[in-house]
Structure prediction request, 530 residues.
Amino acid sequence: MQQPMFILAEGSERTRGQAAQDSNIRAGKAVANAVRTTLGPRGMDKMLVDSSGEVVITNDGATILNEMDIEHPAAQMIVEVSQTQEDEVGDGTTTAAVLTGELLAQAEDLLEADLHPTVIVEGYHEAASLAQEAIDAQVLDIDLEDDILEQVAESSMTGKGTGDVTADVLAKQVVKAVRQVADGGRIDRDGSSVPSRTVDRDDIHIHTQTGASSSATELVEGVVIDKEPVSENMPRKVEDATAVVLDMKLDVRKAEADTEYNITNVDQLNAAIEAEDTELRGYAKTLADAGVDVVFCTKSIDDRVAGYLADAGILAFKSVKKSDARALARATGAKRLGSLSDLDESDFGRVDSVSVKKFSDDELTFIEGGEAAKAVTLFLRGGTEHVVDELERAMNDAVDVVIAALDNGGVVPGAGATEIAIADHIRSESAGIEGRKQLAVTAFADAVDSLPRTLAENTGMDSIDALVDLRAAHERDGRAGIISTGRSGEIGDPVEAGILDPAAVKREAIESATEAATMIVRIDDVIAAE
Prediction:
């Protein structure tokens, strides 16, 4: 008899066939169910406590999944779906996770009915293509004026923690911030007749500060940095200032090679000290002679240089973060300099004001205005860290969806209306699909239906009745969604209610959920090392 051959390391575990598929699908469904109740304007929050006792309270799907300690590899794929959605379009993370879970649940039933995984995958991909067609058909033929973009921002924040300030107020600030940094001409839906406006997301900053209510949140047309002047003798505010951003040390230069100086008398020592002092004083003199009012330095500033700068009336900051330096250059129009030789006026930036403000025990510096200003900051306030953290997540989502609407294909009706249209289109087209693949296509439509059904549940409606009424209203009126009213909801037109979502959010959710679900369904062998 032949000896048995072992090809896996001792202690490795292997799960094959239906057992592997069942394990992966159950794990995916479990993760999706963990965030299901957070979906929609009436979604609930989750409290997440890590091993050190730190608490996070949020209903943001990506944050919840990232904070959960998930070990199952298939479940981790759902987390990646949510993170991809967050990275690409900034919102719709819960939608993507829930849809992935529902696609897996439908696949589980199809596998039990002896449908081959490859057939399921082919059917899902065909259904996803039909879903993209339906999304394109739902894009509203309107110009994205400020009021429309405000509705998009407000829709993304509804149901999230915004403290004592309403989402519509914050939405106005978000849209103003995006418009401030946008390039190009007037926005057209498809960008065919006029140049599309583009936005660099890095030009919109968010800074949080506790100690006041959320209603104190404001838009700063410039940059806020967590820095204080290098000397107490420097001015606390400078107006109509010339600014310079330095990527160099304002300190005594050191020789590149190891050098030893032999000083044998006091005169030599005094000469060395005087030479050093002349060098340091020269930094301040060079900047003062060039007419510089404010210095932002990414590296160190010697205390003596700080004193000389203060004597010259120059406001200076040291150890500025590289990210802040980039923002300051964009905000002021300044170039980032690695040397003070051959300074030219074109190297400098202009700013309306630089002011140092105190908030409790913290000092922050506000750099506002400027001829070449291409950066803004949403300065968020809140009574506690939990409040400002959740407000920050909501505002980040709002900024991202407004940019997605501008740069990636317009807006579609929200409140589940687009999902109902997707499911209806897939079902109507599935009749022309031959073979068993039709079952997978229809199952995809059922999975998409779970999104408005979940919205109805979270809003307080009967999910089955709401889904039936939604389908009927869609057939009758061409558009219908779940509008939250008080403690429950009703079927209505989301466009009239001002509930709009970027088309890019829907497209990305369909694409990423389909890819993750089909990848998991195709796995029939799991080999885990010890």
User: Anything to note?
Assistant: DSSP finds 15 helices and 18 strands in the chain.
